[in-house]
Structure formats: structure tokens, C-alpha cells
Design brief:
The complex is a heterodimer of chains A (about 270) and B (about 300). Chain A has a single domain, classed as Glutaconate Coenzyme A-transferase (3-Layer(aba) Sandwich), CATH 3.40.1080. Helix content of chain A is about 25%, strand content about 20%. Chain A has helices at about 5-15, 30-50, 85, 145-150, 180-190, 225-230, 250-260; strands at about 25, 60, 65, 90-95, 110-115, 115-120, 125, 130, 135-140, 155-160, 165-170, 195-200, 205-210, 215-220. Chain B is α/β, with parallel strands linked by helices and about 300 residues long. Chain B has helices at about 10-15, 35-45, 60-65, 85-95, 105-115, 130-135, 180-190, 205-210, 245-255, 260-270, 275-280, 285-290; strands spanning about 20-25, 50, 70-75, 100, 120-125, 140, 150-155, 160-170, 175, 195-205, 215-220, 225-230. In chain B, strands 1, 2, 3, 4, 8, 9, 10, 11 and 12 form a 9-stranded mixed beta sheet that branches. In chain B, α2 packs parallel to α3. The chains are: A alpha/beta (about 270), B alpha/beta (about 300). Chains A and B meet through β9, α4 and α5 of A and α4, α5, α6 and α7 of B.
């Protein structure tokens, strides 16, 4: 038996990215793999940060439930506006638009999004597969991804599946904007958010350098360099010096499983 | 002279929507969609509608599958945990409908432009996104203050707004529950964008009842063209604190919508009949099980 799951590894790594006093935003997704990466891992990471180094973190669950008592969840809500979620104790609820937070003013420090495709520039696509004028597959549409990638200060792209069809050289449609024109280019275009910070996958973590160029920052323990190369549709370069993703400590795992998520709803059982 | 009652039948209500209209549909994603009105629009075989949407689901998928729609302006068409919207997908992939994409909260802001009497809503952060390359109705201009690029998102300009509310009176006042969420507040924004509001409510109550909790009124009577009492008017989607989502019917719908032939059968069985018959087919036992405690 492994000491931890991939989900726990990612959640703990993510929790280290959060500074005290920040505002973090997460959506709710359905379907097991998507929900794990888009909602559950981010919530666990934020819960762990709040329990350790970031007690002044503000958690926006699904954008509208502010600092909810996550440990009081008896089951994961199946939908964003579940009546049960309405009654989950929290400090505030968003019951107007615009609501209690002002994202245009840059109040969201970090958030999480996903898509069917991501590319070497950190562009995200949730709109269509194929030629946008004559799509092969009509996906759900842009939803909140353009806003996430343009104006939230740091964006963590959470990809539940890592293979060539998801990690492409160039996305079919740019729903959310990455670094195709570099970090400077983002500023010139008027985007106020810093852009994608990292991409988390079941195999590895991608980062972006000072110019916005993608690189493999770490590979999860147990995963080989060949696996990352084979499953990525763009050139990942030389992985010779890439370290393994830092492992969670026993204390972090204890807190995750017993304090943050005592009912084991977010990250499931370890076995 | 007496105050005019706007209480009408579902058929009379849907007659206020015309071929070619731009319609805004209340509710959000899979929550509290005015499905009885949507079904009636299908029954009346309206054509060439433009859905001016924010986050759409079954509402759009049913209208598209029944051939009522020419174009949709939206940020999302999907069925959340039930997956992609099959009729929407097929129609887009076959080039049968036009789609103009807008980002989610900016789709909502388009209705704020209508409220403010503005022709557009400004946004400064769309640079590099495909949305501005492909949607010709979003116009780039230079901010007169900063000199930076800004994009004008056209106002929503609906010809009709349809919503399903918790309760209302015969004059068209619409109320939401004291505890409510964003889908209900979105309805409040939609109705303020247009004077042709067509509403169904779970329950018609006396105006004296409305006056006991005036803070709950989100749409004033003068906006409403008409109002219909339609219990389970959002079925199979939920109406907050009144009726729950009907998962079984959602799944039946999704299975039926997988192909054009099976969806035509669905339309024949459930839609091209009366609303009363639709609810009878769902069955009293199932409908009773969907009622939220405390709502009678």
C-alpha cells in the first residue's frame, strides 16, 4: 500500500502555493475524475493551507459559498446549487450579481480551471474540438474560463487525464489565454491576471518560466520520464534533471485525513 | 375600473412569443428552468428563435432538438452531471444552428446593459481569446481614458423573458423564497431587461399574501405580460424549496436525445401532447416524491 494517493500528493503540493490572507476560488465539477481535479483536490489543498500556514485564507466554494465548514460536509454536493449546499454552514453567500467579491478589481488571488485541451503555451480549450467554424465536437462552451485565465491573479490548471489528446501543441480554440505572446504579451493585451502558474496532472507538474515557457517542474514518484514524454503531445525537452514531486509528510497526511476531510469525501480512502 | 388580471393558460402565455424572437430563459444551468413554457413553445412549433442565454442546459437542448432555434448566444450548453447536451452538440456539429460564445459572467452583464439603457457592456480583458476573433458582435475600441483596448459586448436585447418562480399573484408580482441562490437572482436581472416577461409560478397566491413579505418580490407586476399557475413548471429541473430535480427523467431525456429518431419519439410521447398529459405520464407518485418538505 502506498503511503499516499496521487490526489493527496497534489493537494499537499498545492497547499504550499497558498499564502496567508489570499482569496481562492474553486468551481464545482461533476463526474469522478473531473470533480477530483477541479473541486476536491483544490478544496483539500485550501483546507490544509487554512489549517496550517494560511488561517486567513478566504475560500470561495463554487464561487458563492464563502469559507464553508468543509469538515461538516456529509456528502459531496452533486451540483453547484444543491439545496444541501445552501444549508452548509459558511460565513457568507453570494446572493446577487455582482456579488460579495469583485473579480474585475483583481480580488481573486488564485483559482482552478480545466478544459478538454491544454497546450505548451498554457492556453486552455473548453469550447470545441476541431475547426471552430465546423467543429468536430461541440464541448460545453467557454463558461468562466476566459475570466479565470485573464484576470484571476494565479491560475492552476487541473487536468484529470494526461495524454496526447489533452496535451497538444496548440489548442483548437483558445478559450482561456496563456503565454503564447509571453508574459509581456499578456500585459500588452491588457490581461491583469498573471496567467497560468502550474498545470497539475496525474503524472507530473508543469511550470512556466520567466518568459512564460512551459517546463516539467517535477514528476510524481512512481512515474517515469518516458511516461511523461509519451503522453504529452508537445516537446517537453530534456527531462534529465527533473526531480520527483515533493512527498507529503506524515503530519500533512494526518491533517488532511482527520482535520480537513474527516469524512474522507474530498480525496477518498487511501487503500 | 378594476385592476387587470394577467392570469392566463400556458397556451395563451406562449402565444406572446413569436417566430424569430430573441428569448431569454430564466434559471441557471440545470436549475429552475421554465420548462413548462419551453415545452409549450415546442408545442406551438415556434421557429427561428434566438436564445440569448447565460448558462443553458435542458431548455436550449429541447428547443434545439425540436427545431425551434436558429441561433444561440451563451457561455455554456451542457447538462452538468448528466453530460453534454446531445441535441445541441448534434446541431452545432451539423451546422444547423449558429452559436455566438460569450464568457459566463459577461453573458450576465449583457443584461445589465439592457437595464442601464446602454447598447453594450464594456470589458477590458478579452485580448487573445478566440471569443473576440469569432464573435463579430463583440467590437473592439480604444478606452478614451487609458488608451488600452476595450471590447463592447452587445446588450442582450431580449424580445421576451420567460421564468419560472416560486410564487406570484394574478397581477404578475413574482416572489422568490427568503433563502435563495444565484439562479433565482439571475431571474431578477433577466426580468429587468425587458417589458415582455412571461412567467409561470408554482403557486398563485393572493396579493395580500405577497404584501406580507414584499422584500421577496423580485419582479414587479407591470413587467409581466402574463402569468400562469404551473405546478412542477420547471420539471425535470428543480425549483428551489418547492420541487427537487427529477434525476430519472433527466436520464430518460439524455438517453432519448442520443439520436434524432429516438428524440422524435420522446417529443411525440411527452411534448406533442398537453402539459397535463406530460405530468400525468411522469405520474403523481413520482411528482409527490419530488416535493420539498414545507412546500404544499
Amino acid at each position: 500500500m502506498n503511503r499516499y494517493t496521487t490526489e493527496e500528493l497534489i493537494a499537499v503540493h498545492l497547499s504550499h502555493q497558498i499564502s496567508d490572507g489570499e482569496v481562492g476560488f474553486t468551481g464545482l465539477a461533476t463526474g469522478k475524475a473531473a470533480a477530483n481535479y477541479i473541486a476536491n483536490i483544490p478544496l483539500a489543498a485550501m483546507g490544509l493551507a487554512k489549517a496550517t500556514t494560511a488561517p486567513n485564507l478566504t475560500i470561495l466554494l463554487a464561487g458563492w459559498s464563502v469559507n464553508p465548514d468543509l469538515a461538516n460536509l456529509s456528502k459531496m454536493p452533486e451540483s453547484e446549487y444543491d439545496t444541501e449546499l445552501m444549508y452548509l454552514p459558511c460565513e457568507a453567500q453570494m446572493v446577487s450579481w455582482p456579488g460579495p467579491w469583485s473579480h474585475h478589481r483583481g480580488e481573486i488571488d488564485f483559482a482552478f480551471c480545466s478544459g478538454a485541451q491544454v497546450d505548451q503555451y498554457g492556453n486552455v480549450n473548453s469550447t470545441v474540438i476541431g475547426d471552430p467554424e465546423h467543429p468536430k465536437v461541440a464541448l460545453v462552451g467557454p463558461i468562466f474560463v476566459p475570466e479565470h485565465m485573464a484576470i484571476f491573479n494565479r491560475e492552476y490548471i487541473m487536468m484529470p487525464h494526461h495524454d496526447r489528446r489533452n496535451f497538444v501543441e496548440h489548442v483548437d480554440s483558445i478559450t482561456g489565454v496563456g503565454y503564447e505572446r509571453g508574459r509581456e504579451g499578456r500585459l500588452e493585451m491588457g490581461l491583469t491576471g498573471k496567467g497560468p502558474e502550474r498545470i497539475y496532472t496525474p503524472l507530473c507538474i508543469f511550470g512556466f518560466d520567466e518568459e512564460g515557457k512551459i517546463f516539467v517542474e517535477s514528476i510524481h514518484p512512481g512515474v517515469t520520464k518516458e511516461q511523461v514524454i509519451e503522453n504529452t503531445g508537445f516537446d517537453v525537452g530534456d527531462l534529465g534533471n527533473v526531480p520527483f514531486t515533493a512527498e507529503p509528510t506524515d503530519e500533512e497526511l494526518y491533517l488532511l485525513r482527520n482535520v480537513v476531510d474527516p469524512n474522507r469525501l474530498l480525496l477518498g480512502e487511501t487503500e | 375600473m378594476e385592476r387587470t388580471s394577467k392570469l392566463v393558460s400556458l397556451a395563451q402565455a406562449a402565444a406572446n412569443i413569436h417566430d424569430g424572437d430573441r428569448i431569454a430563459i430564466g434559471g441557471f444551468a440545470v436549475y429552475q428552468k421554465p420548462m413548462a413554457l419551453v415545452r409549450e413553445i415546442v408545442r406551438q412549433k415556434k421557429k427561428d428563435l434566438t436564445i440569448v442565454g447565460i448558462v443553458n442546459s435542458l431548455d436550449a437542448d429541447l428547443l434545439i432538438g425540436a427545431g425551434c432555434v436558429r441561433k444561440i448566444e451563451t457561455s455554456y450548453v451542457g447538462l452538468e452531471k448528466y453530460g453534454l447536451a446531445p441535441n445541441y452538440r448534434r446541431a452545432v456539429q451539423n451546422g444547423e444552428i449558429e452559436v455566438d460564445y460569450y464568457p459566463e459572467m459577461l453573458s450576465w452583464d449583457r443584461f445589465r446593459a439592457d437595464r442601464e439603457g446602454w447598447p453594450y457592456w464594456p470589458v477590458y480583458y478579452l485580448g487573445g481569446a478566440d471569443i473576440v476573433l469569432r464573435n463579430k458582435n463583440i467590437i473592439e475600441y480604444k478606452c478614451p481614458v487609458t488608451g488600452k483596448p476595450v471590447w463592447a459586448m452587445p446588450a442582450a436585447k431580449p424580445d421576451a423573458v420567460i421564468v419560472h418562480a416560486y410564487q406570484g399573484d394574478r397581477y404578475g408580482n413574482l416572489q422568490l423564497p427568503e433563502r435563495h441562490l444565484l439562479p433565482q437572482i439571475q431571474d431578477a436581472d433577466l426580468v429587468r431587461s425587458c417589458r415582455n416577461v412571461i412567467a409561470t409560478v408554482e403557486k398563485i397566491v393572493d396579493t395580500e399574501e405577497i404584501k406580507k413579505n414584499p422584500q421577496r418580490t423580485f419582479s414587479l407586476s407591470f413587467r409581466n405580460t402574463c402569468i400562469v399557475e404551473a405546478p412542477f413548471g420547471s420539471h425535470p429541473t428543480a425549483t428551489l424549496l418547492a420541487t427537487k430535480e427529477d434525476e430519472m427523467h433527466f436520464r430518460e431525456y439524455v438517453a432519448a436525445a442520443k439520436s434524432k429518431d429516438t428524440f422524435d419519439e420522446y417529443l411525440k410521447k411527452y411534448i406533442y401532447t398537453t402539459e397535463e398529459d406530460y405530468l400525468n405520464q411522469i405520474g403523481k407518485k413520482r411528482l409527490d416524491s419530488l416535493k420539498e418538505a414545507g412546500h404544499e
